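Hi R.,

Here's the chain you asked about this morning:
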Amino acid sequence: MFGCLVAGRLVQAAPQQVAEDKFVFDLPDYENINHVVVFMLGTIPFPEGMGGSVYFCYPDQSGMAVWQLLGFVTNEKPSAIFKISGLKSGKGSQHPFGAMNLPQTPTAAQIGISVELLESLAQQTPVASAAVSSVDSFTEFTQKMLDNFYNFASSFAVTQAQMTPNPSEAFIPANVVLKWYENFQRRLTQNPLFWKT
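And here is the predicted structure, written out as tokens:
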């Protein structure tokens, strides 16, 4: 019914069924995993009014299982990408898996899927850092580029007293660069695609 995919690894399409409505995938060497994809295989849909909550479980420093809600899959949303790299030091949340044991190796984690009513899924709050960034990579790149340009240009700032006359160089006042930076940042926040118009 479910599959799990980590980049650079084989697809896992046979979860371990630990209860009638609960499934688990083992994630060996989880500390080297940034994102995980959980998806329905398309062979068996959820029963009407049901969906699956997706959890990430890893051992804390004392070896105890820490479970964190990542999100959901449903018949209408049969796949999801979750970022797990930032979760390895977070707090656990309530979960339906009881006191399940983790694999014996300290570098193994698990993805758990619990089949539940859609109404109860809607009332649960996934850990915020598990969502893949809603800011597209272009917007993120542009923001980093703006910061880098401003910091680079500012590193050359000199006072008028420090300037030496050089007829072949043009000087741009630092406040002009700062004004451009702030305007571009404001416009990017309002509409990341403003530059296309």
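One quick note: Residues 134-190 form one domain.

Cheers,
M.
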